[in-house]
Design a protein that fits this description.
By secondary structure, the protein is of the alpha+beta class. The protein has helices spanning about 10-15, 15-25, 110-115, 130-135, 175-180; strands at about 30, 35-45, 70-75, 80-90, 95-105, 150-155, 165, 185, 200. Strands 1, 2, 3, 4, 5, 6, 7, 8 and 9 form a nine-stranded antiparallel β-sheet that branches. It binds a DNA duplex (12 and 12 nucleotides) through strand 3, strand 4 and helix 4.
DNA sequence: CGCCGGATTTAA
DNA sequence: TAAATCCGGCGA
């Protein structure tokens, strides 16, 4: 990953979701002074993936998934949390990557305030709801272009120390085959990864 | 470590 | 009207 800090080019996100997802590890999410380094992600397929929000076709909520790659798809979960996804693949395919964990690179004071924490710990941004909260995201960022300067941006970071993979979390409603798919990826050298023991070296 | 409530949106 | 790509707090 040459030139850390540079905006990710559109071609990066236009590839198949299972290929893009692990390569997002180490990339940076920037919103104002806050910069997070991605440590854990999950790939979600289109209508054929019974774990995906796209499984019932296009709806008002998931419409950003059908749009161009590199856009944000944000949705509200369990009445409490916002979840950030990066749309991937060709337009109309409806695939996306859920950002599940991150480390703080810059803007720690702001992150601590948003998270209601007094000091940095490995779990400060470990969990999809925590990532969105740390970045100060909500509905207004749904559909936002992450590859253009301004607002929330996706930028080059560094490479993960070691890539781990395993089944996705919280998808008990999906078919056994889709539950078994190893579409959760994490940086094995990072502490900001939930249920790390369930992952294996790739 | 495991259970449990929170609080809202969504779509079958 | 159930279920949702969770989180933090509490008790053991």
């Amino acid at each position: 990953m040459p030139r850390p800090g540079e905006l990710i080019p559109p071609g990066f996100c236009q590839r198949p979701v299972a290929q893009v997802a692990p390569e997002l590890l180490g990339c940076h999410l920037r919103h104002g002074e806050v910069v997070l380094r991605i440590t854990e992600v999950e790939a979600y397929g289109g209508p054929g993936d019974s774990a995906s929000h796209a499984r019932h076709g296009r709806t008002a909520r998931n419409s950003p998934m059908w749009g161009p790659a590199g856009r944000a798809y944000l949705y509200f979960c369990y009445g409490v949390h916002w979840m950030l996804n990066v749309v991937t693949g060709p337009e109309g395919e409806a695939t996306a990557v859920l950002i599940r964990g991150a480390e703080v690179v810059a803007g720690l004071e702001t992150v601590l305030q948003r998270r209601g924490a007094s000091r940095a710990t490995p779990s400060l941004c470990a969990g999809p709801g925590k990532v969105a909260q740390a970045l100060g995201l909500d509905k207004t960022f749904d559909g936002h272009d992450l590859l253009a300067p301004g607002g929330l941006e996706l930028r080059r970071g560094d490479l993960p120390g070691r890539t781990l993979a395993g089944p996705r979390l919280g998808i008990g409603f999906a078919t056994p085959e889709d539950q078994a798919r190893a579409w959760r990826f994490a940086d094995g050298h990072s502490a900001a990864v939930l249920k790390k023991a369930q992952l294996e070296i790739t």
